[in-house]
Amino acid sequence: MSTHHLKLNLGKTELLFLPAKGSPMIDASITVEGSIVSPSQSARSLGVTLDNQLCFSSHIAAITRTCRFSLHNIRRIRPFLTQEATQLLVQALVISRLDYCNSLLAGLPACAIKPLQLVQNAAARLVFNQPKFTHITPLLSSLHWLPIAARIRFKSLVLAFQAARAGSLAVSPLLCPGPRWWNDLPQSVRTAESLPIFRKRLKTHLFRLH
Asked: So which domain of life are we looking at (predicted)?
């Protein structure tokens, strides 16, 4: 940065160590222009909270809080809204947040993403103005909403399509499950002629699975 006459904003600088599995945690500070930057357990970048274990628990908690706040506000005006208007609000303020950078969550256990699924369930019930314990599967089907785990897989596979097209991807246990998901797709989905066609076939395939 000095070479290019740039100055680091130390007030907005965070230090995050991401150790390999089984490696000891590093507790070391660095000094920049006489100022000490100490390690943080998490850091926020482009709206995503990264933690030093890459379990994304802080990120998921932040999304959940924001979405529930939006749902609370929409619920207050729900008596004055049509179902179509409610769905538009929910998709703009809640579903869009659930989908933002969700491919980063690929490979997390179901219990980790359960809070996001509960938010989506609450959103679907709000659209149809249904009570808390209404069975959720018919509502999601009517809205044509994939559940959270499938939405994560959908986003990951769209990225894989752009990278691989009809070929197979190398699978490594150290990577996210995207390559395995890609290789498990039916050939008719993998060989789609374009991205829009791929997205349509993929969504249909995931609906059949879920």
From this structure: Eukaryota
Mark whether 72 and 157 lie in a shared domain.
Answer: no
pLDDT digits 0-9 by tens, 109-123: 899 999 999 999 999
**pLDDT of 40 higher than 60:** yes
Last residue of a domain, one of 89, 119, 145: 145
pLDDT score of 36: 82
Residue 20 within a domain: yes
Instruction: State the SS3 of the chain.
Output: CCCCCCCCCHHHCCECCCCCCCCCCCCCCEEECCEEECECCEEEECCEEEECCCCCHHHHHHHHHHHHHHHHHHHHHHHHCCHHHHHHHHHHHHHHHHHCCHHHHCCCCHHHHHHHHHHHHHHHHHHCCCCCCCCCHHHHHHHCCCCHHHHHHHHHHHHHHHHHCCCCCCCCCCCCCHHHHHHCCCHHHHCCCCHHHHHHHHHHHHHHHC
